[in-house]
Amino acid sequence: MVVVMKKNATDEEVARVLSKIETLGLNAHLSRGKIRTIVGVVGDNSGIEPSVFESLQGVERVVPLLGPFKLASRDFKSEDTVFPIDGRQIGGKTIIVMAGPCAVESKEQIIQTALAVKKAGATVLRGGAFKPRTSPYSFQGLGEEGLKLLALARDVAGLAVVTEVMTPELVPLVAQYADILQVGARNMQNFALLHAVGESHKPVLLKRGLMSTIAEFLNAAEYILSHNNPRVILCERGIRTFETYTRNTLDITAIPVIKSLSHLPIIVDPSHATGRREFVCAVSRAAIAAGADGLIVEVHPDPENALSDGAQSLRPPEFEAFMEDLKKVAHAMGREI
Amino acid sequence: MVVVMKKNATDEEVARVLSKIETLGLNAHLSRGKIRTIVGVVGDNSGIEPSVFESLQGVERVVPLLGPFKLASRDFKSEDTVFPIDGRQIGGKTIIVMAGPCAVESKEQIIQTALAVKKAGATVLRGGAFKPRTSPYSFQGLGEEGLKLLALARDVAGLAVVTEVMTPELVPLVAQYADILQVGARNMQNFALLHAVGESHKPVLLKRGLMSTIAEFLNAAEYILSHNNPRVILCERGIRTFETYTRNTLDITAIPVIKSLSHLPIIVDPSHATGRREFVCAVSRAAIAAGADGLIVEVHPDPENALSDGAQSLRPPEFEAFMEDLKKVAHAMGREI
Amino acid sequence: MVVVMKKNATDEEVARVLSKIETLGLNAHLSRGKIRTIVGVVGDNSGIEPSVFESLQGVERVVPLLGPFKLASRDFKSEDTVFPIDGRQIGGKTIIVMAGPCAVESKEQIIQTALAVKKAGATVLRGGAFKPRTSPYSFQGLGEEGLKLLALARDVAGLAVVTEVMTPELVPLVAQYADILQVGARNMQNFALLHAVGESHKPVLLKRGLMSTIAEFLNAAEYILSHNNPRVILCERGIRTFETYTRNTLDITAIPVIKSLSHLPIIVDPSHATGRREFVCAVSRAAIAAGADGLIVEVHPDPENALSDGAQSLRPPEFEAFMEDLKKVAHAMGREI
Amino acid sequence: MVVVMKKNATDEEVARVLSKIETLGLNAHLSRGKIRTIVGVVGDNSGIEPSVFESLQGVERVVPLLGPFKLASRDFKSEDTVFPIDGRQIGGKTIIVMAGPCAVESKEQIIQTALAVKKAGATVLRGGAFKPRTSPYSFQGLGEEGLKLLALARDVAGLAVVTEVMTPELVPLVAQYADILQVGARNMQNFALLHAVGESHKPVLLKRGLMSTIAEFLNAAEYILSHNNPRVILCERGIRTFETYTRNTLDITAIPVIKSLSHLPIIVDPSHATGRREFVCAVSRAAIAAGADGLIVEVHPDPENALSDGAQSLRPPEFEAFMEDLKKVAHAMGREI
User: Fold this and answer.
1) Chain pair B-D, CB pairs under 8 angstroms
2) Is residue D114 in a domain?
């Protein structure tokens, strides 16, 4: 952290900053210029927020250097985190594709989808049993019944299952049925939930909040890792910007940025990022070309009658073509699907 | 809702849209132009999301007309919602000021602050016992001990207490000590929490998410109202934009906009919106002038040693001057503090 | 400027940064920590961009401390800039109101409006003769004919005139007719235009770009000031954010922020910021309460038939009520209209 | 366009909307529901802005359906626009790479760069002679001298030249030396400049404004096309969002979106989009995989001493590796470099 003093800061004010740094068990490096004084704060300052210094008189600005995240950083662990999902390694040479409907709607729907995505090469079945909805009057998911159907489809098709968990108290229930616990974008800073999935020791798919910076995203992962649960998969799913033509704006650059800052695997959700089926394929290819470790894609056997998000769901034959298309880019990247 | 068909949409595709509308128990109004066809969807479509139609073939775009919120809207209830907080009416002629530290730190700190803000004219004491923090290593609040200190300070100073609750399971505990339950910006779409505070039948202070639209904000309020809990206070606290000079960008226009769309009282948090003490006074005056029903302001007896957010906290004498300053604008608006 | 070296930066890389600083005629202050090294750059670094250092090997990040603006800053000139506009002082105790239609449409329209706004207390008549339009097929203004009508209306009503100039070569023509040259939001970084209005030595109304930071805004003013033209009026008119309910998001906090950074007067355009007549009054009161020195408001005698922006224009009787409303807030602020 | 009436709109208000539509030579399609009335506006409404209707009483909202652009749209011209640049076709099977320094600094620098990028496979040399700079005190480019050096380098290396033109009056001068005129992001809505480059009948590289929507971008292209100049190349170069880790946020989805809306070729500027050399390669691969027709990349023989933007410039050997890397993705897409 760098503390920048105001132009007219007094010696006393500088002294108070230095003493504050000492109190916190850190070291100060003073740089006194003609116009202004700068104080470098050195030591392990994870957990110390800039506001601790911003509140001191004579301070103009505090510049944080490192995100406070530690376990999530490449500085802490330089080699990529790789772990198996249903027999395949995520974070390694293989591109992992997760696919399925937005919401589990019926036994038929989920089994039909599971078989179709398995056949086309997916490794993981996605499907929501508990759905976060903007309006209290929208379909909220089938709940535990949905979890049971997911487990059934997994067994029938031979896939792992990822599904969203929305509250800490539901973690044990969802963990009974799912192979990967998903924390949704709206819950990225639901800290009680992050603690709970951390404690579950299940693999976690953590989606970036649509209003969250990369630093906040990695700090959210840190909450999970700090429970000694290293199996975290990050997911970029688009951020909210002024552009409204697509539902969100996929932050493609976040992929190489996060690869440089962290050792965790990262996948992309092209369906929520674009909100429209017709753009899913192009941005998925882009994600692989940018270095993503996988994708999570919405597939529905009958999008026109889907209870949610039909507009962004691929039909099974479209998903097959999509997988063929992806393979070429994956091979160009020296990877496999 | 208006469904806009693609230029080359076939009769069959239009027919499928019409039949979908019927299935949902709604009425269609067809407008067939030379270039394209438009279908108006009429009836109670709360809870029906645009994606239901977007997924149909031949559909170019769906334009939602009303937010799906109902109980929160002025259409539903035209007169302002007014209810008492500690003997004063919020939503009426009086401007309610809530003040106190970001976090409860000690008995001394909270009692000293409570007495100071009471003396200067505040009605409600704010203070966090459970703190949402970006990093798991930051100070997370005193927990139940903090709640007890808040209750003690309330009794000593004669104020109501507002404090944040972060998870559904903590609602009963927090409700024991607090007069108003606060749902923080990061939890604005934590739907389980919204249900829980709705069921508590306590007054709720709902903060706008820092990247939430006004429609999402009112839908979040709808979750609470739908539990037959009408005592919701909205709080604009700044949104996230490209401008980084201040912590967030206060959306001042949201005040008259929300007043036109909803009957609920709305207050402003100038401390989080600006992040800097020196701008708190100017934006608070602006909030009152724009029609806000109150303010929630951070006050700390010793900001330089605050455990969080010191940079944006007023000192007690500054708060006194602040209240004097506000009075003039309040009177110009025909209101009282 | 502060140059932050990478964790593993070599001594050689640090040496190269130091030598670069020297080459530029500046002084370096080295702060070497256990983990990383920080170099403070001291001296007059206006005009030196962070990228000069960012490109050096071993550099992680460069933190600019001051905007490079100088003449526009309070450090350069501590007292407020005040100058007369049609006999009244802008930047002083008086709130200056500029009002008129979006575009000059006819002699009747502009004279009728001029008389109405004069009567209600406006000091300056606004009206576009050259209109920047998103589409080449939209009405582009009456051109020189519009300027003549503005000048006529000025003489009839006794007001100053502000109107937009869109290209450097039009500056002499527009300067013949206008008392204040307006640089529109889309042209805030049209540097050739900034030079030209600077050289004109006319008062300039500079609108903030809808995508511009406060630092960029003040740097744009610097272009004008650097031509020895001190009569610059800044205008906050809303920025572009994810919120689409209103046309733009008025950045109310920019007012006290700019007042703290710069000595220049600043006014607010509530019409473009909100895009809707019904919110103009509330945000104008807020602007005055936040410390703005004036307003520029759209008024049209017949908004339903306006050629542009009718939805945000007040009718003359609405404008009269608006002025009455503002007076109360102005008086609460110790100012006059 | 769809005009949505307020719930309580009177018959008279509806009638006024209908008569307005008629006045404009368009047709109305009335859809009267129990709750509200919707009016579809049919006919050629290019150039008619929503505000024409928004200003009418009883109107709640106007929904524009088509951007007003016409010549730029796929509806107008369904097949891709392809035209030759220095013997290669842009918009066709070949990926066109434009490369060179941010600014022309010296004869040596530009010739050395030209030879290096030619050797590695670039088709076009980029380099700024007139530089738009945030601060008036920054290096503003070599001016005409820079243009001459570019022309010299073109002849020596055998490349086409693209360079920025900042004002209408400079168009003839720049057109003498350049093969492609570049309109920079800050000038995307400098309409006088758009007219001038349109009239020049030179190929134009039009950069997206950093806070411009896709619709505004295509409308800016429309200005150029409307002068019967069909050779427009669009360039996505990142938009401004809340994320500050990278300079801008590359809107990767804009590529397939624009390909669906328009027939014009589109390229990507990974250097300005990311601001950092280390991410240029990954996002360039992503751009190709998303369907871009080319790239414009900053290359500098000595980035550490570049006068601007060194941090984002590739060194010649890095550029060679970059081209090799791109080829694989291009081939996977069935394209050539």
Assistant:
1) 62
2) yes
Angstroms from A82 CA to nearest CA on chain C: 25
Q: Which two tokens stand for residue C304?
A: 């339903």
Q: Are residues B270 and B127 in the same domain?
A: yes
Flag if B329 and C332 touch (Cβ within 8 Å). Answer: yes
CB interface of B with C, residues 158-217, below 8 Å: 211, 213-215
**Furthest-apart CA pair in chain C: how many Å?**
75
The domain that contains D212 carries what CATH number? 3.20.20.70
CATH of the domain at D46: 3.30.70.1140
Q: Is residue B70 part of a domain?
A: no
Band of residue C21 on the pLDDT scale cut at 50, 70, 90: confident
Q: Are A258 and A214 in contact (CB under 8 A)?
A: yes
Report yes or no: B241 at the D interface, CB cutoff 8 Å.
yes
Q: Are residues B321 and B185 in the same domain?
A: yes
Report residues of chain D scoring pLDDT below 50: none
Instruction: Say which residues have a Cβ less than 8 Å from residue A225's Cβ, sequence separation at least 6.
Output: A71, A72, A198, A232
Q: Which residue of B lies nearest to C284 if distances are taken between CA atoms?
A: B290
Assess if residue B58 is contained within a domain: yes
From CA A248, how far away is CA A244, in angstroms rounded? 7
DSSP D12-69: HHHHHHHHHHHHTT-EEEEEE-SS-EEEEEES--TT--THHHHTSTTEEEEE--S-S-
Q: Are D103 and D40 in a shared domain?
A: no
Q: Return the minimum-mean-pLDDT range out of A10-14, B98-102, D258-262.
A: A10-14
Identify from D66, D253, D274 which residue to disrupt to test chain A contact, counting A C-beta atoms within 10 A and taking the largest count. D253
Confidence (pLDDT) at B20:
87
Q: Read off the pLDDT of residues B140-153 as tens digits, 9 standing for 90 and up.
A: 899 999 999 999 99
Kindly state whether residues A44 and A174 are assigned to the same domain. no
Q: For C251-280, b where at least 16 C-beta lie within 10 A, e where not — what string?
A: bbbbbbbbbebbbbbbbbbbbbbbbbbebb
Give, as one character, the DSSP assignment of residue A311: G
B13 occurs within a structural domain: yes
In this complex, is the C-beta atom of B52 within 8 Å of any C-beta atom belonging to chain C?
no
Q: Structure pTM?
A: 0.90
The answer to whether residues A274 and A131 belong to one domain is yes
Distance in angstroms (rounded) separating the CA atoms of residues C314 and D299: 53
Task: Tell me the Cα Rg of chain D.
Answer: 23
* E runs forming strands in C113-168: 124-126, 160-164
CA distance D118 to C162: 52
Cβ atoms of C23 and A23 within 8 Å: the answer is no
C144 and C288 fall within a common domain: yes
Q: Residue D79 class from Cβ within 10 Å (0-12 exposed, 13-18 middle, 19+ buried)?
A: exposed
D88-90 and C204-207 strand pairing: unpaired
Name the band, by pLDDT with cuts 50, 70 and 90, for residue C164.
Answer: very high
Q: What spatial distance separates the first Cα and last Cα of chain B, rounded to whole Å? A: 42
Domain count, chain D: 2
The widest CA-to-CA distance across chain B, in whole angstroms, is 75
Asked if residue A319 lies in contact with residue A99, where contact means CB atoms within 8 angstroms, the answer is yes
Alpha-carbon distances of A153 from A10, A160, A304, B92, rounded to whole Å: 69, 10, 22, 56
Mean pLDDT of A127-140: 87
Beta-carbon separation of D286 and A287 below 8 A: yes
- Same domain? For B161 and B299 the reply is yes
- Chain D residue with minimum CA distance to C315: D55
- Mutate which of C42, C75, C211 to disrupt the A interface (most A C-beta within 10 Å)? C42
Q: Are residues A204 and A263 in the same domain?
A: yes
Q: Which chain B residue shows the shortest CA-CA distance from D61?
A: B65
Which residue stretches of chain D are H helix?
11-23, 51-54, 107-120, 144-157, 171-177, 191-200, 214-225, 254-261, 270-274, 277-290, 316-332
Boundaries of domain holding D170: 83-332
